[in-house]
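for the writeup, i need someone to sanity check this before i put it in the appendix. the sequnce is what the collaborator sent (i think, or maybe the updated version? ugh). structure was predicted straight from it, no edits. if anything looks off just tell me and ill rerun, i have time this weekend
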Amino acid sequence: MLKKMRRLACIYRLCLKELKHIHKACACSYDGMKAAFKSEIAFRQDLNVCACLFILALLLPASLTQKLLMIMSLFIIMITELANTAIETTIDRISADIHPLSKKAKDIGSALVFLAFIQMVIVYLTIIIHLIFF
């Protein structure tokens, strides 16, 4: 019985430690979202577009799977915009000088967001066309 209680106490401490870690990670994530919102107009613009398209996804008479595909494509846009912001911030931190590799890194980050938008447009158009014609 004592052995079992010790094992349970050990599991409890481990779970508590993991919960503290998850809480700290969530706080860092919140700080990152807040920083991107405050400092990046592109992030705010993408968030506004995604909010409108999120509402559209909910209002369309689509299946649950179709709605989830539309909504997840919006998350991909926000994820890539955050990655692009991180790349740009890192490059700006390293040097304010114009350098071909800095431009290349920033252009690749921008391409991430562009491809995410293309993917979202394809998903939305495919579903909307399916709803209209089939």
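The chain has a mean pLDDT of 93. The chain has four helices and no strands.
thx in advance!!
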